[in-house]
Recover the amino acids of this structure.
């Protein structure tokens, strides 16, 4: 409850200060933000960060894919059935060599 109250107070203070600053100050801040975002240094940094994020995302996706295939048998390409065959349990889990599929009655 305390956090909600503080959030509400913050919104109220921000609204009051923002309304006092007026449209002119808003336009100044907007222009300054545009100049910063259009600067070559910021554009270069954003490009480098984007490339790093893309690289890390691809590595993570690959690792998750490998782990999932190793841990979840139904994601493996050959789970004991042929390419057009389905196991009798309908679960996707391979049958043990000694067990027969359990069929519901």
């Amino acid at each position: 409850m305390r956090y909600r109250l503080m959030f509400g107070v913050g919104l109220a203070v921000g609204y009051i200060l923002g309304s006092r600053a007026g449209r002119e100050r808003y336009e100044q801040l907007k222009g300054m933000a545009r100049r910063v975002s259009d600067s070559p240094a910021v554009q270069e940094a954003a490009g480098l960060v984007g490339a790093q994020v893309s690289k890390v995302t691809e590595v993570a996706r690959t690792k998750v894919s490998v782990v999932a295939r190793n841990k979840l048998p139904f994601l493996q390409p050959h789970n004991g059935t042929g390419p057009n065959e389905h196991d009798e349990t309908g679960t996707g889990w391979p049958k043990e060599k000694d067990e027969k599929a359990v069929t519901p009655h």
